Amino acid sequence: MESNEKIFYITTPIYYVNDIPHIGHAYTTIACDAISRYKRMKGYDVHFLTGTDEHGQKIQAAAEAKKITPQELVDQIHVNFKNLWQVLNISNDDFIRTTDERHVRTVQKIFRQLIDQGDIYKGTYSGYYCVPDETYVPESSMGPNKTCPDCGRPLTIMEEESYFFRASKYVPELIAYYEKNLRAILPEIRYNEIMSFLKSGVRDQSVSRTTLKWGIPVPGDEKHVIYVWFDALINYMTAVGYSDDPETFAKYWSHVRHMVGKDIIRFHCVTWQLMLLALGVVLPVEVIAHGWWTYNGEKMSKSKGNVVNPFEMVQEYGLDPFRYFLLREVPFGNDGDFSETALVGRINSDLANDLGNLLNRTLQMINNYRSGIVPACENSASNLSELAEKIISKVDDCMNNYCFDEALKSIWELIGRANKFIDETMPWKLAKDASSESQAKLNQVLLNLYESLRISALLLAPFIPDTSKRIWQQLGLDGEPVKMFIDKFEWGSASGAKINKAEVLFPRIDLKEWQKSQDAKLAQKKSEANIMSVMSENTQENHEIDIEEFHRVEMRVAKIIKVEEIKRSKKLYKLEVDLGYETRTVCSGIKAFFTPEELEGKHVILVTNLKPAKLCGIESNGMILAATVKTEGNTEQLTLITPEDKSLPLGSLVS
Ligand code: MSP
User: Fold this and answer.
1) Contact 446/370 with Cβ under 8 angstroms?
2) Measuring CA to CA, which residue among 11, 30, 15, 21 is closest to residue 321?
3) What would the pLDDT profile of 379-434 be if each residue is shown by its tens digit?
């Protein structure tokens, strides 16, 4: 049970480092950032944690492919996430990596404790295993005829010694807990999903592997490594000092909330909670599950080339428009569709038109009619002040329920009302009338508009902190809104402030120009997609061919000797390949997966008798063979098919 202390501990999932950061990752982290900033402004002691999940089979395989150690790989790649959080202005208090020494120590301590109390025991694990991928495949995700869903090869039943967590023992206790704590899983649809899953029964869970090396060793039995999810979930406890700082742990743990995507709620609402019950530790206050983002209505995938890159979006449209869009566009908990058209729509209407214009008009009028000084007035109350009061409490309600879109909608209700207030009160008319009555009314109107902007800036600070700061500065106020307390707002107290020069907050995007540049981008993408489909022709279709047909394909061993960027293309590299008897230029759609350094010197298999094709104006003479593999994060990775024997002469025929 949570106490009444003003403490708030919020966590994002820790992200797999074998994936490039995309808007899905950005969304969870921005949502946690907004709630953290909001709670700080409500006077809470906030601890906001994010980090990276760095163990497991896929990392080991990716490192092997790059001929570096897994540690070297994760040291290089986790930085992508750290950089993104900087770019997105994320205010996390800690960044945990599962390879941190503090974490390894905590996981081993917990594992040992559970062995000692009899909740982890040794047994035999049996399951469907993909030998080439070295991974177990749950029956629910097997392909047709018991094949691997990633590589399509047949699975074999494998048995190995494994440690098991006695999960089943704690299920009744967990059901009873959830029955009493209806807000422990949000939204309700996820609560119901978990309850019916729990009631259908939970088996003891295998929590170690002997088939894998890259993980935390089981203490005292080092041929086993701890299963990656068992290791990963513990990060939330490590970070607040479970194993070495009991004071910090006691302070934060009973206030912990986990924000996660809907795909990983079973881990968080079943496995994790059963582990915590076994450890005798308080259960999290809430697990909040959000929906998934698609792009223009389609699932994002590397091979489709439609993974939305948050770095690019920020570069093209600006940070705060991107943050605003993600939080405003979908009701929290629902799936959402990301489209640049919708983003541009929001920039022009909500940000440039509604918010930007209100600020501009108000500042100009204070400048023109009151020489830039916010006037005083006898009674500052108005229907704007009444609305503002309601909205402050509505926003609070929304934030307590993680309804970011509703909170923003409410703030825009105030902004919209203030814009209307200008039209209704017509300050330009009041200004022309020198009577003391009109002048007093003008003072009241200007003060009310100013206060609406001041409160809007404060309320917006958790969502779009930079913009809020810019508004604050233009209003001539000291300090930074994110460091203020929302509850300390006093309507009317700003009179006497000297405003600064009005500057455009968000330039309107010229839709015609924007559409032109989008069309050019789309044309470019289409030509790349055509090339890709020519390249992968026949590989998708499941029809039989005879041996003659197969022999018509000429494949030879080749070596990549030069890799050039094609600036206009996100997917293609221009490669020079050496066939021993000649060199050729090949355009290959593998840019998203490899750096030029990783490719240069690689021995590959080249289809040599493919009709030449013009890609991005370059003639391509052949196709390099590669296979796609799905990572644990369900995104795709590409592996080049290379001859095992590197001494094979270049040009050797493959049959
Ligand atoms: N490493 C695990 C989490 C361990 S937490 C103890 C993991 N990592 S992940 O990188 O694959 O996913 C991290 C989060 O990103 C998940 O919450 C997942 O739901 C979210 N998303 C991944 N793709 C997404 C979208 N397309 N849209 C929204 N969120 C998505 O799972």
Assistant:
1) yes
2) 30
3) 888 999 999 999 999 999 999 999 999 999 999 999 999 999 999 999 999 999 99
CA quadruple 346, 347, 351, 354: dihedral, nearest 10: -60
Residue in the structure block whose two tokens are 């066939």: 579
Task: Give residue 634 CA to ligand 1 midpoint distance, Å.
Answer: 9
| Cα 264 to Cα 132: distance, rounded to the nearest angstrom | 26
For residues 304-317, give the mean pLDDT: 91
What the block records as the tokens of 128 is: 């469907």
As a whole number of angstroms, the distance between CA 298 and CA 634 comes to: 15
How many angstroms from the chain centroid is the CA of residue 260?
10
Q: Which two tokens stand for residue 259?
A: 């924000």
Is pTM, for the whole model, over 0.85?
no
- What residues pair up with 124 in beta bridges, in sequence order? 161
With the most atoms of ligand 1 within 8 angstroms of its CB, the residue from 271, 292, 332 to mutate is: 292
* Rounded distance from Cα 633 to ligand 1 centre (Å): 7
* 600-627 confidence digits (pLDDT tens): 999 999 999 888 887 888 888 999 999 8
Residue with the larger pLDDT of the pair 181 and 19: 181
Collapsing DSSP to helix, strand or coil, 495 comes out as coil
Tokens, residue 367: 């400048």
- Hey, how many other C-beta atoms are within 10 angstroms of the C-beta on 368? 12
Q: Which atom of ligand 1 is nearest to the CA of 632?
A: 11
- pLDDT-based confidence at residue 630 (cuts at 50, 70, 90): low
Q: How far is the CA of 146 from the centre of ligand 1 (A)?
A: 27
Distance CA 517, CA 194 (A): 46
The closest of 126, 134, 135, 133 to 157, measured between CA atoms, is 126
Q: Are 190 and 292 in contact (CB under 8 A)?
A: no
